[in-house]
Structure formats: structure tokens, C-alpha cells
Amino acid sequence: MYRLAERLYPICRSITGNGVRETLAILKEIIPLELTEVPSGTKVLDWEIPDEWNIKDAWIKDMAGDKIINFRDLNLHVLNYSTPVDQIVDLESLKEHLYTLPEYPQWVPYRTSYHNRQWGFCMSHNQMENLKDDNYHIKIDSEIRPGALTYGEFFIQGKTKEEVLISCHICHPSLCNDNLSGIIIATFIAGFLQTLKTRFSYRFLFIPGTIGSIAWLSRNENKLQHIKYGLVLTLLGDTSPFHYKKSRRGNAEIDKIMEYLLRNESNSQIREFSPYGYDERQFCSPGFNLPVGRFSRKPHGEFPEYHTSADNLDFVKPVSLGESFTLLLKVIMLIENNLKYINLNPKGEPQLGRRGLYRQIGGESRQKDYEMALLWILNFSDGDNSLLDIAIRSGIDFPVISDAAQKLQHSSLLSAC
Ligand code: ZN
């Protein structure tokens, strides 16, 4: 996963353009993504697909001809969606187009201007403070013209039509935790799931933030009824604890699952829904109100490196990506196994010993949990309670409950609803 981060990191992405296409082409080496191009000017819900932005090069040269800012060293140096420019300007005029972070004077900020046409550069505050009062040659070799918005989608057909939606944004340039970590975890989970036979169908979206989810939603309203679980993945590569933001519904199955799985993760936090953040804003807009929550580590805007050059390959750790991947696998295991059952012998307890379901000789505590699980499942499998409900109520780990349910099913004491 970290190797993929290293490959994707240098690419200059935006909400449209060749950086997105290049990124999706690399992901296609791992999963068979289907690409969609939505032409500029297309109406999508209340929005319109913007003109496409591409950039070849950009720099600021001093009068000696030395490049003091070079887009090729760090693509954050250019205001994302900057208009082209090629001018000699004095320091005062240049400063009107410079963005810095005085509170973190060594870092370069990430800034965008998707809707207001302007040019601009980002640099460290220290560098700006040291600029000589002189003229500068500035050049941004970019273009904004009608093109398309590109997104990638990968669908895995399961046994049922019911779907799990996993979404991540692909519009950030050289930022590693915000953007790349979500892309990478989604790609590797998708790569793993395509080797399995799953109960649910899985839909993975690799979309530019906001406008991408709006474009996808506007073109796929007929599919939304199948979405039973959903997660927006972002900020999963740093070392901070896990966070889960609930869906707008607040009591969706995915909310219950995440609360259950994060209860044992140290310092993890569950937050209520709010109409701000990532693409959960669109999926949970009232007209859709999908059961989609957001899985991250420390949320956006709550760590200093957010949207700066310090959100780089050092900030993201392989071990953190691994932990996030593992947690997401647990979520999927739980979704796949969280069935509701009916006790086929509900009058009095069935005799378990006769069926070889009780141990013959006393044993370890997991065995005790397992036997208690049999009783809990038999008692609460009335068609209303899922295995997760029973796990929560009994305090017995879900894998033990799931295991015991399978044994009961094999003994014809339980039938899946
Ligand atoms: Zn961001």
C-alpha cells in the first residue's frame, strides 16, 4: 500500500484533468476500474461540470534567471485551477497572488480556486519573508477549457443485489493522508474482495470531492435503493486514533457496526452526523439520505499538517495503513456475516449435548463464550435481532457468535431469514 502511495504522490490531481486520469490508470493495474467522463457543461443535480484544468509547468524566476519556485519540485506551489500567466511583476504585485501559512512558516499550504478564475502560487512563509524587493518572472503553463470530469468505478457482483458503497476522493494533488490513504485502502480492499465470493455486491467509487459525488449521484439514482451500507474513506494513514462519523440516519446498520468495532480501539471516537466534511455530505443529503458514514483517523482540519506540504509520505505510515485496512476488513466480515435467523426449535431449549454442540469435558473460556453464544442466539433468533444485535446484547465477540450460528444452522436448529 505504501509503495502505491509513493507512486501516486507526485501526480498533480484536481477535480478534473489528466492527473486524475493518470491516477486511475495506475489503480487499473490493481483493479479493473471502469472510467466515466462527464463532459464540461453537463448539468448534475444543482451543479454543472466545470471546464477541465491541466497544467504542464509553473515557476517563479528571480532576475538572475534562477527558479525560486518550481512546480516540478512540489505541485502544491501552484494554486489548484490557476489560470495561465507569463509576466514580469514586482514584489508587491506578486505578493497579492501568494499564499502562505504564517503559523507554520516552513510549510507550503494547499489552496484551490475552482470557481474564481485567478492565478496564484503557494510557498512557505519563510520563503516569502526572504524575497528581495525586486522584479520576478512568473509563469504558469496551464489551461482551462471544455473537457470532462473523470471518475472511476468498480463493481463486484455478490450473491444479492444489495450493495455496500465504498467511496473516496481523488482530487487532491501531493497530499498523502488527505486523499491518497483513502484511495489506497479502497483499492486494496477492492483487490482483495474481487478474489472472494461475497454475499453483498460492492461498489467502489474513486471520485473528485463534492462535484464527483454529485455527478455520480445524478447519473445513478436508480441504483441507490440497493445501497444498504456505505463508507467514505479518508485520512486513514496517520498514527492518530480511529474516528467514525455516523450517517445522517444515525441508527443505520453501518453506524451500529462501526460503533461496535471501534469500542475496543484505543481512543477511538464516534461522532454524530453534521452537514460538513467529505462526500458523506452528498450521500446523506436529505433527498438521498443513504446509510453512509465516514471512516477516518483524525478528522480534517483537526491536525496541523492538514492541507499543507507536511501531509506527505513521512506523515503517512505503512503500519497505520495496515491497521486501517484490517479494521475495514473486519467491517466487511461483519457486514457479510450479520444475518438474522429464526430458531427452528423455539419451544423450550433444544438439547444441545445430544447434537454434539456442547463440549464433553470442561475447558477454556472461549469454549464457555461459545456455549453461551449458542444460548443467546437460540433465544434471540426470532427474526428481529441480527447476530450483531445479539453480540452487543450478550457482550460476546461477534466472531464467536457468528461461528456458533453456523454450527446451529448445520444442526438444523436455525434458519437464515
Ligand atoms: Zn482535503
What percentage of amino acids are in beta strands? 15-25%
Helix amount, in percent?
25-40%
User: What's the domain count?
Assistant: 3
Main β sheet profile: 8 strands, mixed
Count, helices = 12
Class of the largest domain, according to the CATH hierarchy? Alpha Beta
Bound molecules: zinc ion
Question: How far is it from the N-terminal to the C-terminal residue, by CA?
Answer: 38 Å
The unreliable regions are none
Second CATH tier, the architecture of the largest domain = 3-Layer(aba) Sandwich
- Assembly type: single chain
Radius of gyration: 26 Å
Sequence of strands across the biggest β-sheet: 1-10-12-11-13-16-14-15
User: Any idea what the shape is?
Assistant: elongated
Overall pLDDT level: 96
What name does CATH use for the topology of the largest domain? Aminopeptidase
